[in-house]
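Figure 3 (text version): structure tokens given as input.
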């Protein structure tokens, strides 16, 4: 039987229902320890496969007209989860609500994380540059944006 994937409304406890992929462990810990109110994460949603959380993602406001796309992906997420997530995120970015709030959406990707760069491209982001030692562990981070 094929896996059942769906989008559900994000709730803060979803962050504790999965183990993040290794490249996101430090950022994940900072998020779950520092966030007590889901509204600081902006507009977000959860993607589940067979009732198990495989990703939480959204756009957090940065300044007027600018948002930061973010996602935390479960270690068990497979390529089909990623393709499903990309389709749902593209629909989210194209929604009237998002287009009405943001003229620019940014995304940060740790420079050595090839899958993150590929995912940014799937979502229509363009690489704008690299910020040296900006990552949680001192790694370089690439800035992507969609306008």
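Below: residues designed for each position.
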């Amino acid at each position: 039987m094929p896996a059942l994937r769906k989008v559900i409304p994000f709730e803060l406890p979803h962050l504790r229902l999965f183990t993040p992929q290794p490249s996101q462990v430090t950022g994940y810990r900072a998020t779950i320890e520092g966030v007590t109110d889901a509204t600081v994460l902006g507009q977000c949603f959860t993607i589940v496969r067979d009732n198990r959380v495989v990703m939480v993602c959204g756009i957090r406001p940065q300044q007027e007209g600018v948002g930061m796309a973010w996602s935390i992906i479960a270690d068990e997420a497979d390529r089909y989860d990623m393709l499903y997530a990309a389709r749902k995120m593209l629909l989210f970015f194209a929604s009237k609500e998002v287009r009405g709030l943001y003229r620019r959406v940014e995304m940060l990707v740790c420079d050595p994380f090839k899958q993150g760069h590929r995912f940014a491209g799937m979502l229509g982001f363009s690489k704008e540059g690299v910020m040296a030692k900006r990552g949680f562990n001192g790694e370089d981070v690439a800035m992507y944006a969609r306008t």
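The mean pLDDT is 89.
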